[in-house]
Amino acid sequence: MTNAAAGLPRTIAVINGKGGVFKSSIVSSVGALLAEAGWRVLLIDLDIQGNQSEDLGLADSTDEGKHQVAVIPAGRPFEPQPTGRERLDIIHGGIELEDLASVMQGRQARDPEWMYALGKSIASIRDDYDLILMDCPPGLPILQTLALVAARYVVIPTRSDAGSRKGMRLVARRFAAARAWNEDLELLGVVRTGITSSAKGIREEVRREIAADLGGAAPVFETCIRYAERPAKAVRDTGRLPHELEPEAERWFKARFERLRERKVKEAATKPGAHRADRTDEAEIVLAPSTTGLAQDYAELAQEFVNLLGDAEGRAEESA
User: Fold this and answer.
1) Which end of the chain, N or C, is more open, meaning fewer C-beta atoms within 10 Å of its C-beta?
2) Cα(41)–Cα(198) distance, rounded to whole angstroms?
3) Per-residue pLDDT tens for 222-243?
């Protein structure tokens, strides 16, 4: 039987064994977009680079992961911090997480439940949020394991290069190992990233390669996140996300997210604390034509997150 601190509902680990695959950007953009649509979202940055803080314009207020070092080994609950965006909170990451990895490494030999430590810190605040997204490090395997044990679902971003796909296969092995402690862990899907919008042939080729690498074990998101260096640099330089860089985006998002906001998040009758998205009212996210293509990509990806999550939760409820 899975531990109560494992496989937490609506908790998603975004992970690859290689850096530079847009992992942090996916977490910050999808999280912010869904928060703007009315979801209560928590971002947990487990990466020593602390990119979430930069993406959200919080570089001056980050603790570089000190809070995580203090609470996770002690089994204390997280105290999320506001991001300045409504309904969007964060647990900061950063260089201090190297100490957390060292502490947890030493704990493995003496604590038979060390792998549930992160889940315990999340569990007591879990019901405060509709969605928790964890930005996992490409290295530090022990932190990856903590995230995979705490998570209910996994999303793997990957670029088209051999190194990124090797990182994806490495995560697949860690995923299989983590299921010994978290039997509910499920691979929600793979996101293709870093491919130019005109390279349709490469997109399909990468789709086939991913399917071969994973044996068809998970869907490949339809949305690809394009390579767009100037907007990506602007995000880190300004602390504003792609959809926030477009002056007219806010007006369009408010109008176009109205249907998504109406999608209800319900308690599953047979599983207290579990949530399922109501798919009776499909939402469509469309941005103004002047909005950057990169912002459009993230909006479409947020939509797919909602749809695939709703499908997965529906299947779980039917099989319960």
Assistant:
1) N
2) 33
3) 999 988 777 788 888 889 898 8
